Amino acid sequence: MKGTLIVIAKEPVPGRVKTRLQSEFTAQEAAALARASLVDTLGAVLAARASRRVLALEGDPGPWLPAGFTVAGQRGDGLDERIAAAFEDAYDGSPMLLVGMDTPQLRPELLGFQWSGYDAVLGLTEDGGYWCLGLRTPDRRALVGVPMSTDHTGRDQLQRLQDLGLRVLMLPTLRDMDTPRDAAYLAAEFPSLRVSRLYRRLQHAAHPGLLFEQALGGTARVVATGIDGRTVPALSELDRWTAPADEVDRLALSRCEGPVLDIGCGPGRIVTALAERGIPALGVDVSPRAVSLTTSRGAAALHRPVQDRLPGEGRWGSVLLMDGNIGIGGDPVDLLRRCAELVRPDGLVLVEVDPNDDLDDTAPIVLRSSTGRRSTPLPWARVGTRAVLRYARRADLHPTEDWRAGHRAFLALRRTPVPHPTPSTQPAQPARTA
């Protein structure tokens, strides 16, 4: 087209862009996808025929901005006012077409229409909005007051243009990228886009903590597998983790001596059950969501890795490693040594072990989400009774009890007493004199 092309965009800052993507991606990942989408859009606009190109930007330009654009800061309160201002600030006497940053599949040829016979241009999106708006001259009446970010914004905008007596050229409807499902669609239909390549990389490189948070929040079903893809059953029982303590849990807790520290407390069913028994207890977990769920139940929990400094070190009556948490970090000896540091000299370390007594698998695991994401390898260990007994000896812990209940198995360990030299029963020899 002959005239000015305007891209209206936000600086891709984590937490400020693409927040709806954060149901499956971190704020940093969502911002990276937004940046890739913006770069794709700027590239298409740069390749299109135009007499001038303007970026109407909220925020600051970064290295993602190619040469060939004039940058103008956005002004106005709502999006309707900011779009109207972008037309006013970019106007140089020629027609203008404004596009957003959310349709990276935009191709230069789509912008090569002819203005002849038309006063305005509009391209709708599948979710009810619009991806582009063109005006021959700035006119605030065409924009201010049109409801933005609704499922009828596009229809309302078209009606406003027609009410002003403008002849409107309709461009093809596109799908914009607002949700994870939109991102998946774009990656499948337009695989060569920068945003599509990034999406595919992110799908196979999720942080394990993010998928665990999604599972706890109920936004996705998550299973644990080995690197080979085989499911790890003991680590995929989220329904049990989020439910109240059951009979087997309560049987294990009957061995506890307070106060109790629950390592990897998850959503807090164990800490809650202990509190209901009147036993002082604290949960620790690296998941903010898990800690929030625990405290919402009225129990105490701390957001902290077990290897960091913890309250009451060396004074806990019992330390718990339930639900296979002996696997945390992938090094059972290191974890058991840490537990021995945390309990008092006569304290108890209660470990839920794998029902397979001979299992000794310290290979990493992978979390896989029902949304299609896969985590990076997570250091973990799956160990049965015999392996834990070997590891316990190296951590100066000795077994006092092992038992099974249902399909679950447990070990009770205590710190190994440090031998003290016994007084000699032989009479003392007189000191020799010279």
Please give a structural write-up.
The protein is 29% helix and 23% strand. Helix 1 (27-47) packs antiparallel against helix 5, helix 4 (180-189) crosses helix 5 and helix 11 (332-342) packs across helix 12 (385-394). The chain folds into two domains: 4-201, Alpha-Beta Complex (Spore Coat Polysaccharide Biosynthesis Protein SpsA, Chain A); 233-415, Rossmann fold. A hairpin with a 4-residue loop joins strand 5 (120-125) and strand 6. It has 434 residues and is an alpha/beta fold. The protein has helices at residues 27-47, 79-90, 153-163, 180-189, 194-203, 208-217, 238-242, 247-253, 269-276, 288-296, 332-342, 385-394; strands spanning 4-10, 52-58, 70-73, 96-99, 120-125, 130-135, 168-174, 222-226, 260-263, 281-285, 301-303, 316-321, 343-353, 360-361, 365-369, 382-383, 397-405, 408-415. A seven-stranded mixed sheet has the order 3-2-1-4-6-5-7, with helices on both faces. The protein has a seven-stranded mixed sheet with strand order 11-10-9-12-13-18-17, sandwiched between helices. Residues 415-434 are annotated as: Disordered. InterPro entries: Nucleotide-diphossugar_trans (IPR029044), SAM-dependent_MTases_sf (IPR029063), Trfase_1_rSAM/seldom-assoc (IPR018641). This is Glycosyltransferase A (GT-A) superfamily protein (DUF2064 family).
